[in-house]
Amino acid sequence: MTYEQLKNLEKTSRISCGCGISGIVNRNGNAFSGELIISSICMMRERGNGLGAGYAGYGIYPEFQDRWCFHIMYDQPREKENVEGFLETRFNIIQQEPIPIKKIKSLSFVPVLYRYFLVIKDEFSDGLISEEDFILETVMSINRQFNNASVFSSGKNMGIFKGVGDPDEMAEFYRISDYKGYIWLAHNRFPTNTVGWWGGAHPFGILDWSCVHNGEISSYGINRRYLENAGYYCTFYTDTEVITYLFNLLCRKHGLDLEISGYVLASPFWSKIEKEEDPGKQGLLKTLRIVYASALINGPFAVVVANSDTVVGLNDRLKLRPLVAASDSDFVYVASEESAIRKICARPEKVWMPEAGEPIVVKVNNKRR
Amino acid sequence: MAKPKAISEFIIERDMEKCIKCQACVRVCANDVHIWDGESGETISRDIKCVGCHFCEELCPTGALRIKRNPSETRENAHWKKGYIYGITRQANSGGIILTGMGSDRPHKNYFDCLLLNAAQVTNPSIDPLREPMELKTFIGGKQDKITVEKLDSGGWSVKEKIQGLLELEIPIMFSAMSFGSISLNACKALAEAAKVSKIYWNTGEGGMHQSLYPYADRAIVQIASGRFGVNVDYLNNAAAVEIKIGQGAKPGIGGHLPGEKVSEEISLTRMIPEGSDAISPAPHHDIYSIEDLKQLIYAIKEATGYKKPVGVKISAVNNVAPIASGIVRAGADFITIDGIRGGTGAAPVAIRDSVGIPIEIAIAVVDQRLREERIRNRISLVAAGGFRTSADVIKAIALGADAVYIGTAALISLGCHVCQKCYTGKCNWGIATQDPYLTKRLNPEIGAKRLVNLLRAWTFEIKEMLGGMGINAIESLRGNREQLRGISLNEMELKILGVKHAGEAW
């Protein structure tokens, strides 16, 4: 199949996958090299099949910390002109450049990869819609209108790097070890059919939110319809996109904090809510389930979600996918397997298995940008 | 001239070797089919009077009776089928509307039969309901779109919005509106008791609530229909929810008529009308000629009930059902009940029952989609009604977008009904659709309640198995999740309207 055919296959049908995930956060906001996360994710080679890998780093663009940064992949070079024309109508482009890459022989196809540092034009900063909503709408428009372009990263002082290949190939290709960040997420993909579209790899991101995910969502049909009515369109056709957008909707638009959003996505069972001794928490959990019924995620999943100041690890309600966490001094690690943590931190102070549906929330203090 | 006679629909075969001449059949048949001929010492059966309810056949101690369809055929004709010829014959004799009972028996396309369910394989483990929790709890009523949570100094949380006035159902099934009058008090009692035991709700229909059913008030949805029978402030407050009935699937756009001879003392007390007077429900509510009038009634009820109970509106599924539903949300209703063309009735003209309205499957799909597009879906619950036959129909309705379903005919079948469609005659041998004390005492409310509870229990097991099979363990993850459905034998337009993919299409 040609790349075009593969992409169309992936864009018209939802693809589920088994995967390996890893996340590292420095709680004091101290940046560290991408080496650590590469080493961690590559430990779980068994969990992928070479059809997708990626990284997300926070704090990687300190010199542009207040600029929106878009990473865009162009499957056809000619689409670049069209998208840039569109961007120019909305933004002042402070800097644009190819994403630095190292050519690797084993990669059969490589899209054109560009990054843009942007400032919203004054005429759009009239306060009628928030900057974030404007960016969201812009990203959705590009991804829906331009068939050969995808914005796959759209935050500030953070970036997503992903593509079709093994995690070590992607690390080398994107020169991940050249970046320093205070949060890193990584993903190793095992899609269940032959795919090869770079846009389908993880992490998924919107604004400064990113997400790596192992699982399949049986509630996808309703989660997607729920999100569409809130202005989020699923253009990548993977489960993970739904999780990313749900967190974004609940935290950013509804003002719920990440831990509470975790209780929406992986709500406790009614039997557990009934036994809850704290009446305040019981009332909260009950209300969340009733109001946010369509945002409940059903099916097996382990997920690590990050934004600029928080990392959340979350399992489905039955813990049908593995997730381990560890902490050592100011580092917290979350990964599919303990081996991926021990590889980079041989003797953590604490290692634990998060309970089903109980979010692990790590806040970053003294964030240094 | 020679007047053509209607020919009997059924024939009764009596095995004379088995018949012990006990005359049980003679005593029990409300339609006087069987008579004892003292002279010949034999029981004679008159086929023409038989409605096909099978009561005598099932009661006969020796199994001597067989009720069969009359094989007598008119010349085969794809257009002028037997039923039409007999119908015209009857109307030429009487000059009247042909009445019938129950839901339509016409072979309208059944979309439930064209929808198939998904199951998880390999990439997603199916869930075993015997080992893992499987949650069917459902809340009926309006909900906020979002909530505000405040973190307390004590470390706890407090939710600003208070969620109140919701019906909490253990399973997403309720008993449809059936009034005391259309069915017997014993049937009402069985439904009410079963609703209480199963933690669901029953619906009084438009006939008011009989005193003896007051203990079941907290599981009752009381109805207000165009006749306003039995409606007063106590009636409204003596319930868990109130439903304004605008229409009914079996007879959209027309009213109802309970003949005076059925208005016994008990019914007269319940409906608050004189004994023996006709109980006429007009076609429209004469205080609702527009959506703004409906809004006034909704808020009048809310005022009367202190904003503590959900107020719903029941309409029949018609062409414009989606915009109407949207208007009902904006008029302030907390739930909307939609009754499809196969919805049952105690009495309706055949021509209307079989030809007016649209299937419930289509109505659920378009209403759910419309309310989502308008971003008001959370503000209302959608209850679907009209011909649910199995747990699979229920689960498909929920996947299409319903919050819960009402069952009526299925509930009556569990009480003995054989769907003979003669409810309007008041001669129901099973003691359901009758007020004749000789017949109603055949229905024991305690046993009836147990049978209803059994039915719900069985469907609950089946729904849990199917849900677990899809890798889902909470009913809300199936609601509106049309990815779990696939269509067969449907054209592109049908698939588009239902919002489902064709079998063979992946996610």
Question: Could you please describe the fold and organization of this structure?
Answer:
The complex is a heterodimer of chains A (369) and B (507). Chain A is α+β, with helices and mostly antiparallel strands and 369 residues long. Chain A has a domain at 3-12 and 19-214 and 321-363: Glutamine Phosphoribosylpyrophosphate, subunit 1, domain 1 (4-Layer Sandwich). Chain A is 30% helix and 28% strand. Chain A has helices spanning 3-12, 35-42, 79-90, 131-145, 167-174, 220-228, 239-253, 258-265, 270-275, 279-291, 338-342, and strands at residues 17-26, 32-33, 53-58, 68-74, 91-98, 112-120, 149-153, 158-163, 180-181, 183-191, 204-206, 209-215, 301-307, 310-315, 324-328, 331-335, 350-352, 360-363. In chain A, the strands form 4 sheets. A 7-stranded antiparallel beta sheet of chain A has the order 8-3-10-1-16-15-17. In chain A, helix 6 crosses helix 7 (239-253) and helix 7 (239-253) packs across helix 8. Chain A starts with a helix and ends in a 6-residue tail after the last strand. In chain B, 29% of the residues lie in helices and 16% in strands. The N and C termini of chain B lie far apart (68 Å). Chain B folds into 2 domains: 10-96, 2-Layer Sandwich (Alpha-Beta Plaits); 168-502, Aldolase class I (TIM Barrel, Alpha-Beta Barrel), CATH 3.20.20. Chain B has 507 residues and is of the alpha/beta class. In chain B, helix 4 packs across helix 14 (445-469) and helix 11 packs across helix 14. In chain B, helix 8 (321-330) links the parallel strand 17 (311-316) and strand 18. Chain B has helices at residues 24-28, 55-59, 82-94, 185-198, 233-237, 265-271, 291-304, 321-330, 350-355, 360-373, 391-400, 409-414, 437-440, 445-469, 492-498; strands at 10-14, 34-37, 42-45, 65-69, 99-100, 115-117, 138-140, 149-151, 157-159, 167-169, 173-175, 202-203, 220-224, 241-245, 256-258, 279-281, 311-316, 335-339, 348-349, 381-385, 404-407, 485-487, 501-502. In chain B, the strands form 8 sheets. Chain B has an 8-stranded parallel beta sheet. A 3-stranded mixed beta sheet of chain B has the order 6-22-23, with helices on one face. Chain B has a two-stranded antiparallel ribbon with strand order 1-4. The interface between A and B is large, with 51 and 49 residues.
